[in-house]
Structure formats: C-alpha cells, structure tokens
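Usage example:
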Amino acid sequence: MLSTTPRTTLGREKQRAATDRAELYEVLDSALICHLGVVRDGHPMVVPTGYGRIGETLYVHGSTGATSLRSGQGAEVCVTVTHVDGIVLARSIFNHSFNYRCAMIYGTARPVTDPDEHLEGLRALSEHLAPGQWDYTRRPTRKELAATSVLALPLEEASVKIRRGAPGDDDADYALPIWAGVLPVVTGFGPPVPDPVLPEGTAVPPHILNRR
Amino acid sequence: MLSTTPRTTLGREKQRAATDRAELYEVLDSALICHLGVVRDGHPMVVPTGYGRIGETLYVHGSTGATSLRSGQGAEVCVTVTHVDGIVLARSIFNHSFNYRCAMIYGTARPVTDPDEHLEGLRALSEHLAPGQWDYTRRPTRKELAATSVLALPLEEASVKIRRGAPGDDDADYALPIWAGVLPVVTGFGPPVPDPVLPEGTAVPPHILNRR
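Running the assembly step on the lines above writes:
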C-alpha cells in the first residue's frame, strides 16, 4: 500500500488515486525522465533529469538540483513522473482533460557516498535509460565516478494519480451533436541514428534495436 | 533575447543554452503539459498541468498548485516544459545523455481576476490542448467559470536548454568497437477513440482528425 500522509492524500479528484505499490513501480519504470523539484534560495526550481529504481529506492543524478544537495546535506525534494496518455475531448470545454499516469514522491534526498551503492545507483540510472548499455559500453573510471554525484530517495511517501477512459460530461451535454472521445498520445522509439563518425558496418546491438 | 538573471544563467553545459525568444516559444507551443513547481509549507511540490500562451504570458490552471495560489495572492513558481527527443548512446556510460529541449520559467504567478482575461486565458489553455475545440464544443457557463481559476505568469525570466545530435565521447573512446548514436524518442497522436456512448455515425471533426 502507498502512504497516506497529508501531502500524498489527494485533495481533488480522489477517485483518481491509485493505492497499489505495483502501480507506482509501473509508472516509474516505464517513463524516461522525472521532474525534480527543490527549494533553492527560497524559490521553487524544477529540473528534468534521469533516474533509476532499485526496489524501494529511487536514484537521481545529483549534479542537477539544489545547492543544498551539492553541498552534501540532504534536502527536501519532490520527484514527479508523468505519462501523458491522451487528450480527453469532452462536449464542454469545462470537462476537457488529459488521460495520464502521474507519480509524486516526497522525501529527503540523501547524497550517496558508499562506493558500492554509488556504482549500483549509476547502474540503475544507466539501465533505466537503456537496458543493456551497462554491460555493452565502457564502464566509468574512478575519475568519472568522482565527477558524478547520485542522490537516493526512499519510495516511502508517494502518491499515484491516474485518469483513463472516455470523457465525463454533464448529463445535459450528452444530447449535444458534438463528437467526444480521446485522442491518444503515443510515445515510442524511432530507428536508431548512428553517430556519423562510426566506422561503416558497425552493427546496432540487439538491446538497442529492440528497446521498447 | 531571453533574460540573464542568476537563476536563468546555466551553471553547467553552457553551450546548451538557447538565447532566442523564438526558441522559448517553440518549446512552449509544441509541448502538451508543463510541470509547475511551488513551495508549499516549506517543501517543494511539482504538479503536471496544462497551459496556454498568449504573447508574453503563460496561463496555467490555478486549481493545481500551492495553497498560497488558491488563497488569491501571487506566489513564486517555476514552470518547466520538457521535450525528450532521444536517448544519446555513447561509447562510455559517463557520456550517455538525452537529447531534449527544456524551458524553465521563474516568476510570480498572478491569479487572473479580470473576467475578459480569465476567459482569454481559458481559451488559450483549451486551444493549446486541442486547437479548434473552443469554437466546436460548449463554452463555459458562468458557474463553470467561477469554478476554474487561472494563473498568469509573465515570460520574463526564462531559460531554454537544448541538446541535439550525436554523442560526444572522449577522444580515446572513439577507437572502441562500440555502436554509438541516438535512439530517437517519437511522440505523436494515435487514431481518435470515440466515447462509447456517442451516437453511431458522429463524425470526428477535421481539427481533431488532423491534430499534429
């Protein structure tokens, strides 16, 4: 079950709340990036960044984000991951919406200092981006590792909000001669584009060719 | 030209900064949602939401977001709009990246109280979602307007960061027998899905059928 703290309990559209941890994992594992929110000098700052998950922990790059994170102490963050699945076209402007799946995670981001966890966090980030690349490409050197900070965020205080399906119109509006429905938003991968300086004939590895 | 305040001047990857307002508009006008960051009870909160643009002003729904916004006073926000265009697959883990276009806008969100601007803001939100729907579907009633708050954010303090093209690897790594390149991320619309209760034969209007 997901937590029910005041800030993860939905104030609006409560029927859209998902309460199963499996739904949280599904939303996180199938997206490419998150939006990391921090408070910097008293104002909000939202940066897109990659992430990876190992069990109950989310790993994000630490170089993005708040000064307080870079200085090594933990900081309050909000990580939001959103899939836009469709545009909900209702009979009234008022009932227009999106179909979406959104996870929000609150917590204190801990800078990862243990060398083993640091490497595992980077591996999770890499495998989230493109599964198979960790074993296929050149691993980080000691110098590169030192230049890459990783933050760990426990998946303790999280909410998931999902909207699926047809528009919900006001009763009287169903009689209107207006087309209503959903325009699906589809995201996928195009054919791999080789680096122009790649030696001719270098084969695209199967884990890239078949990335879903 | 875009602003160059301390928080819109990139600390890292300066070569990725775009400085043209046209690029800001392009990033904003071609995305579907933004991530709105606010400070709520001292902690960051990031919510996905729709938006629209009229000239130098961004309009977002006010019902999402901070308590301070709902109470009617302006609040510091950060609005981030991100397109993920590709996964950059380098020869080393360290040089992996995303191709992306990202706009960040800082400012004080002003609750819109003028009835004309309120309606124009909603129209911009609606037309951003699906151009043509404002004239095609039922317009908001007075009661619906009262239930929909709109925030205005000036496009004054903004930054745009863009990464395009092939991976940038370390000189020595180009000799490695590793495929490198970009896996494009493609987002588009699927065929419209009619509301199941729609009378048979209701035609999909051209502005939905041809939405790009």
